[in-house]
Amino acid sequence: MKRSNPDYSTTVVEEKPLETLDYGTQSQPVLKLKRGRQALDASKRLAFELSQFSTQQEILQTLVDLEKELPLESLEVVEFVIRSLWERFYETEDAAVRVKVISLLGSVAKFPGVNVHAIAEELIKLLNAKDEDKTKDSQKVRTQIFNTLLTLGRLLDQEAKIIHHIEKGAIEHLKDPHFSVRCQCLCLIGHLNQGLDGGPSKLESEPQVGAQNLLASFAKDSDPRVRTSALQALLTLHDRGQKLDIAVYDQASLALNDDYEDVRMAAIKLVWVFSQADPERTVKLPSSDEVRLVDDAFIKICHMVNDLSMTVRREAAGLLGSLHLVSQKFLEQTLDKKLMSHLKRKKTEHEKRREIHASGGADSGAWSTGRTWGDKAPEPEIDPEDVSLMSSGACGAFVHGLEDEFMEVRSAAVDSLCELAYRNSSFAVQSLDFLADMMNDEIESVRLSAINSLSKISQHIQLREDQLETLLGVLEDFSGDTREAVRELLCHCVFATRACLHAAIHALLGNLSKYPQDKSSIWRCSKFLGEKHQHIASSLVPELLSTHPFFATPEPSIDDPAYVAILILVFNATAKSPTMLAMFPDHTNRHYAYLRDSQPDLVPQLVNEKSVSDLDSKRFEDGGSQTAKDFFESVQLRLRHVTSLNPVSKQQTLKTAIQDLKHVKSIDSLLSADAECLCLYLQCKLMIVQAQQDKMWTVPAALCTHQSSGLKSLVENILSTSYRVEHTFTGLDSQQIFLLRQLRLIAHALQILVTQRSSRTNERNLNSMLQVWESFLNRIKTFSNFINTENINTDAFCAEVVSFPGFFESNITNPAGVVDYVQSIMLSHEVPCLELHSSLSQASAVLNEPRGGSDNPLCFSAGLTLGVNVEAILENVPDATKVKVQVVFPDLRCHWFIPKRDDIHVLSPTKQRLATTVILSHRGWSEPGLVEVSLVLKYTPDVDEESVLKLCSREDSSTDEETRGIKHTKSAKDSLVDGVINLCSPVQVCIMPKALR
């Protein structure tokens, strides 16, 4: 049967100017506006078609199409769909169709205003029907009914009566022979049980306990899927805030020995829940001893680390790290391989003698004859069921986890071991050897996890020579992430001996010669090694600086990265041990002054060797911050009165303020971002003031063709600068972003005004006018949506701008009137000043690799690929996924490469490290060429800015466009067309694609 297609109608309206209307002489008939028939709603049409189809395939396809239309448009359509679904349900006998109908009823019931009670009551009646109801013949239908009742019950969570009614129906069907029905009923009870009076169980005084016992009883069901659902329902009760009874803990402990993996997984989680909810409760062991519940749970979970299933072992190893309250004796057993006797506590000889002495008896030490009262009794017979070599309790749990064959288990064990060691200093010392061994793991992620774990517990440990040897061996790893993690670990570690520091220094220098791209990371590591080992480093100074008490040694080159790494370590050690200054040769003091200026973040200020200029600079640093802040406030105060000045004085005041802000930026790093932000905004404001006062507005439009070129360049600068301020400065509020969007709107309007005045009169037809104003109307729409979303307080100017689309529509046949209206608004508007109330931070990037400056080209075969390593430090970039690597080839083709998420590593809340590889390819070149590599920030513009820039290029020749494109690309400015902002200066890399012979 073919589907009925909805009727569509098209209305054409022809308008004629009023002054030309002449009904007596018009030759063409007047078209009248007619109201066409409204198209039938798609969802309503599909619901109507349900009653027309008879085959299962057609009905199911219609139901699937109807599901795709959700959510529906109105309550009237929803009610019609519900009626159609019920009619189809009672008409069909196919189980698959009934299941889909019931599923759709649950989805449609989520629409506000739907009578959920009626749907729930009808479904309950279907369950309770005993006679000729075909629903009872299909377990799939019953399962779906309970699934839909669960959805409806969540919508009616405040209606206790209907919830109790639904729950009662689920309890009655727990005896259903099919496992899926029982599983769904258990899930429903877990999600909807409220523990109110008159609850599901009448055998218990407390309904919560009754529901829990009911669920726990099904943990012994014959079907493993039902057992899993019962335990998961108990977990759901806990998640909903109900306190679980201790009897459930015993049942969960028994389920740990279940034959099926899913049951054991749910049981482990349930045991862990009890250890977190009531850790200090005492429980009895089979040996009649009592232990804390958290200790017993810890032992049980440790035992599951030896499970046959990898998933269970991983879950158990991961949960161990969260049991922070476990006793020390059980915690230490996890690193011991000695087998325990099923947690049976045996008294030591010292305890036995103490008890005999307290009772007044004497221990002769002879063999027992059995004839003396109080003589040592023989050992009781041991039940074979209680003896199990695998039931070793907590003994060696982490050892087994760290030696597991699956990396998932090893990684989880490393994380848990680190978490427990971080909170226990003595346990951290014991676990040091095990974590050090994991740095030799075959999987890189496990090695990284072990290295990061050692970094977290470094405050509790001291590395010995053998442990450090294992650690330094990882520095030879090919993976840059692993090497970086090891150096980060060395920054936090404390060495026990002088030999350890000596070995670490030589390992870093060897690492620097093998991987020169790691220079910045190695220098940073040298800084922390010097800070933490100043007393040990003092004995190594003569060897490190190659000094001799009698012979003059040659002066090392300050351009040698290895020598700089040694100086950074020595200078940082000297900062806390000034006695080392006397050991420095003269050239070291000179090198210190150079490094102090070139690397201020790595080289500290030495105390005893300050010159007068150093003292003056220190004194200036102490008081300079407050002075710069006061000066910055005075600049903002000056800008508040700029609106009352005449145009000439206004421009001069803005230029002076811009120079003052540049000075503030240079003298105080704390105010650098604030000063830069306000400076860029004032530049935009100054350009708008210059555009508003341009002479072209006072001359006839016919003479404006060549006088408007300067104003067009101002518009482009305003747009690009405002985008840079909005997307590179973090901390701007909605009101400040509103001012930036207002700047772009004014600049866009000025661009249109310039275009209209420069264009010829015969070009001002309706079609060209719509093309010119289309992007401006879109910008106004975006501007209006931003105002409504952020609840911005607007003024009269914004009100006129927001109402402009209506004015444009009513005056679309009068282009000159529209231009005059916009010109009167834009040229008279005073752009408000930006007021900064909080400190800002500016996004930036430091490109460490590639370094550039090399005349040796990187050669590769034409048509093949060349990998260029890119390593950079990102600062104050809130979303690093928007950072892209930009490569500009000599032929001005520009490519952007998107780094992977794994290439971005978080160093601190405001600093990230980007390490990626850019793949280049090109045709053969006759000689080497330079490509520019830089980092850019991608953003989404308000509108298509390319259409705005094209407004000023319609009269330009193609040669001018090409020259302008070359100038734009080579100047490395922000690209409005591509929507990117440069975060750093480009680095030139010389490459040479060789042609294949």
From TrEMBL:
Gene3D superfamilies: Leucine-rich Repeat Variant. Its main location: nucleus. Residues 348-357 have a biased composition (Basic and acidic residues). GO terms for biological process: snRNA processing. InterPro entries: ARM-like, ARM-type_fold, INTS4_8HBD, INTS4_C. Residues 344-377 are annotated as: Disordered. It comes from the Eukaryota. Residues 629-837 form the INTS4 8 helical bundle domain. Residues 847-995 form the Integrator complex subunit 4/Protein SIEL C-terminal Ig-like domain. It is found in: Nucleus. Keywords: Nucleus. One of its GO terms (cellular component) is integrator complex. PANTHER family: INTEGRATOR COMPLEX SUBUNIT 4. This is Integrator complex subunit 4.
